[in-house]
């Protein structure tokens, strides 16, 4: 009698064990199902949120490289060619504009580890790539105040400001900006205490030495604006800057010279032509950095006026052909496109004698952030603000006005 009873007990134990296994598998399935639902909700609210960016890939897993802006609710309203493609859950931060992301894709760069590709946008999306600024200029204000708030000497603020400049340059290059101009030292800054001025020169020289190898490796051209031959500027700094400008000048053609080659194009046309700074429509990874040292906008215009008058007197330029374009060739910024975007940090709302001739139609962005605290997140905010602007150059553009109104509504 004992053996049959033991057999029944064993069968009952096996049955109980099977029931426990089924319960555990059911729990795992339920938990996995809830996680799947939560992931889908998260992707939907982020990837398809207003102004969200998503990467398009084929079902086979090969990325097309196209970054598109989706409608907040209906993915099928996105403006891209959807044949045999699907949206996958790789989304970019809202701060990266579609135009900049597509520009990076076209240049062969990857965002957040995503594979590079050769995506194709329709005509409407190709127009949107024009919204990325090609030339960004900075009034780097707030170094001294940053140091004062931390009870540090002003020299500490200038040192930290130099670090911010290098960090911003890396991010600008990543975002596809081709020209960046920094207001390093104005003609009015000579009124500051001599010890602060001397430290500014010391920081500039150390930064230039540190940046030299990086500029050659990363294909960054350096151009100096202003009068650096002033006897008050240390000779060692003058030599350092001249060498940096000379040795990196071979990179300037790719990032700047293309936009000035077509003599019949006015500056507005040059700034809006996507093939100008990218060389025959091909993306390139060069960047031109302009440092304004001992520079003043009024002084630059005055010096250009004197040289222009001599050209008129000598017959080099006839009075009939004299215009803004011919005058602009005598400025120290003659081989640069006008800035699309001006960024001033530190909370002040003025231009401080910076690029006065060139800022006629630049968008001006003011921020209360002090320059040493200005990082890539602050830069992304400025670029996103610029993307919302509607540049009409004194005229009217109904399509741009509608796009801007729609952008403001959905945001």
Helix content: 40-55%
The secondary structure category is: alpha/beta
The largest sheet, given as strand count, sense and whether it forms a barrel, is: 6 strands, parallel
Q: Round the mean pLDDT to the nearest integer and report it.
A: 73
Strand segment count: 9
Tell me the span between the first and last alpha carbons.
80 Å
Q: Looking across the biggest beta sheet, what order are the strands in?
A: 6-7-5-4-8-9
Write a concise keyword list for the protein shown above.
411 residues; alpha/beta; three-stranded antiparallel β-sheet; 13 helices; 45% helix; elongated
Quick overview of this protein structure:
The chain has helices spanning 2-47, 98-106, 123-128, 143-149, 154-174, 194-218, 235-248, 252-255, 267-272, 297-314, 324-328, 376-387, 398-410, and strands spanning 53-57, 63-69, 86-92, 135-139, 179-186, 220-225, 287-295, 341-344, 363-366. With 411 residues, it is an alpha/beta fold. α4 (143-149) crosses α5, α5 runs parallel beside α6 (194-218) and α6 runs parallel beside α7.
Write up this protein.
This protein is of the alpha/beta class and 411 residues long. It has helices at residues 2-47, 98-106, 123-128, 143-149, 154-174, 194-218, 235-248, 252-255, 267-272, 297-314, 324-328, 376-387, 398-410, and strands spanning 53-57, 63-69, 86-92, 135-139, 179-186, 220-225, 287-295, 341-344, 363-366. The strands form two sheets. A six-stranded parallel sheet has the order 6-7-5-4-8-9, sandwiched between helices. Strands 2-1-3 form a three-stranded antiparallel sheet. Strand 1 and strand 2 (63-69) form a beta hairpin. Helix 4 crosses helix 5 (154-174) and helix 6 packs parallel to helix 7. The longest helix has 46 residues, at 2-47. It is elongated, with a radius of gyration of 29 Å. It starts with a helix and ends with a helix. 32% of the residues are buried. The model is unreliable at 43-130 and 258-283 (pLDDT under 50).
